């Protein structure tokens, strides 16, 4: 970040800076620079905001004003016109500044793209056009581990009723993706609905130790009406499945990977600055500066090497996935399964690296770095909380079975 942008960083946190005054990004490199600017804005008071746990309205406003929300949207409507590999890297960069906001942005990209996952061509165009032009911020209430939301077919309309224990993005979202099963059938229906309506009640009960600003509490859905025409992927109430429809898990798992790696980068960068400026050498070590302590130098070198390797694998797998996105109808079950194995491998690596880095920073910064006001524990709390989403052992098992027997993971709704 150049010095000329420092005043902008401070002003942007208070809503007083206009991103429109900056050149509009057009290339992946320029969009990454924009993401780094957002990171700088978020990290200024990340510890304080984590402690407060307040609804991140201002942070989502920064994502909108910066243009990151419409990164995947059509250029004609003011979007970035970019692809998933860049969206993953942008998510990683934002998460380095604030893990919660990185998760919110990554999930937003997932749900923005969901029209392409299951929608008809007409629905895809309509959703992406309106979402981009109006800068919709997406949330989702589709946790498959809960009981299915029940949908009643009332002729021209579908009516959703049920509860979900998680609804990431709830209060800060403009629209929410719902998923349920039509009563008396096994037909699953996705739909995008306004987040603020009488039929949706957010419980505001997210009280976990990490990812505290993700608005991930429970939700009650009671009488939300959706026209059949808005049922994603349906024509005349009939759904035509494609192998591409099963790509939801590989995509969301790469979202996880990238905000885990972003949190790890944030932890290491924050700790390194503290080590350079504040950490004292051990009194019996014979060194005058903490930056000369052999165990500290070795620690940063080891963790950074592992993080760089994980980032490189994440980028390679994202590039492989983009080839699938470019020709969705060509995706075979074999190719989809082999890709999910690669995603499982990087998920296992990213989880281990992020947990190790966010824990080890305390050994590299010293006892005084445990002060609550610094909030260095938030990095570990954030990774630890979300990495329990699904057992990483099952990801390693997917890789092991493929290596030993050639068995491919079966598509599921969850993981």
Description:
The mean pLDDT is 95. Helix content is 50%, strand content 12%. It is globular and about 80 Å long. α2 runs antiparallel to α4. It folds into three domains: 3-136, Orthogonal Bundle (Butyryl-Coa Dehydrogenase, subunit A, domain 1), CATH 1.10.540.10; 139-239, Butyryl-CoA Dehydrogenase, subunit A, domain 2; 243-405, Up-down Bundle (Butyryl-CoA Dehydrogenase, subunit A, domain 3). By secondary structure, the protein is α+β, with helices and mostly antiparallel strands. The chain contains twelve helices and nine strands. Strands 1, 2, 3, 4, 5, 6 and 7 form a seven-stranded mixed sheet that branches. A two-stranded antiparallel sheet has the order 8-9. β2 (149-153) and β3 (157-164) form a beta hairpin. The chain has helices spanning 6-13, 28-43, 46-52, 57-66, 84-97, 99-118, 121-133, 248-277, 294-326, 333-365, 377-386, 392-405, and strands spanning 138-141, 149-153, 157-164, 175-182, 188-194, 200-202, 219-227, 234-235, 238-239. Residues 255-389 form the Acyl-CoA dehydrogenase C-terminal domain. InterPro entries: Acyl-CoA_DH_C, Acyl-CoA_Oxase/DH_mid-dom_sf, AcylCo_DH-like_C, AcylCoA_DH/ox_N_sf, AcylCoA_DH/oxidase_NM_dom_sf.
Could you provide a short overview of the structure?
The chain is α+β, with helices and mostly antiparallel strands and about 425 residues long. The protein has twelve helices and nine strands.
């Amino acid at each position: 970040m150049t010095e000329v942008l420092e005043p902008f960083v401070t002003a942007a946190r208070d809503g007083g800076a206009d991103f429109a005054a900056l050149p509009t990004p057009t290339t992946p490199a320029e969009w990454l620079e924009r993401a780094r600017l957002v990171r700088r804005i978020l990290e200024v008071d990340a510890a304080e905001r984590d402690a407060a746990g307040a609804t991140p309205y201002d942070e989502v406003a920064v994502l909108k004003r910066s243009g990151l929300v419409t990164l995947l949207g059509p250029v004609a409507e003011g979007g970035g016109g970019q692809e998933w590999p860049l969206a993953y890297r942008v998510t990683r960069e934002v998460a380095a500044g604030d893990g919660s906001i990185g998760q919110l942005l990554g999930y937003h990209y997932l749900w923005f793209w969901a029209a392409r996952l299951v929608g008809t061509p007409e629905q895809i165009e309509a959703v992406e056009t309106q979402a981009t032009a109006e800068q919709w911020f997406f949330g989702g209430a589709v946790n498959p581990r809960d009981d299915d939301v029940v949908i009643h077919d009332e002729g021209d309309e579908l009516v959703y009723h049920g509860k979900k224990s998680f609804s990431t993005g709830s209060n800060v979202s403009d629209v929410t993706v719902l998923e349920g099963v039509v009563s008396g059938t096994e037909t699953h229906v996705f739909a995008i609905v306004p987040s603020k309506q009488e039929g949706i009640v957010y419980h505001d009960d997210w009280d976990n130790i990490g990812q505290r600003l993700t608005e991930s509490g429970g939700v009650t859905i009671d009488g939300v009406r959706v026209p059949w025409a808005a049922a994603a992927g349906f024509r005349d109430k009939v759904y035509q499945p494609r192998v591409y429809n099963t790509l939801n898990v590989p995509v969301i798992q790469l979202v996880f990977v990238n905000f885990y790696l972003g949190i790890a980068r944030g932890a290491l960068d924050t700790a390194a600055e503290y080590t350079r400026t504040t950490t004292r050498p051990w009194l019996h070590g014979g060194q005058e500066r903490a930056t000369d302590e052999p165990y500290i130098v070795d620690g940063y070198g080891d963790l950074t090497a592992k993080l760089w390797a994980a980032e490189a694998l994440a980028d390679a797998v994202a590039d492989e996935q983009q080839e699938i996105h470019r020709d969705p109808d060509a995706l075979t079950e074999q190719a989809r399964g082999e890709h999910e194995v690669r995603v499982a491998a990087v998920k296992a690596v990213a989880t281990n690296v992020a947990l190790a880095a966010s824990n080890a920073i305390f050994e590299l910064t010293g006892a005084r770095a445990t002060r609550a006001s610094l909030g260095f524990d938030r990095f570990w709390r954030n990774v630890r909380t979300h990495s329990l989403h699904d057992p990483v052992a099952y990801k390693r098992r997917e890789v092991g079975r493929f290596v030993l027997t050639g068995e491919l993971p079966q598509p599921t709704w969850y993981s």
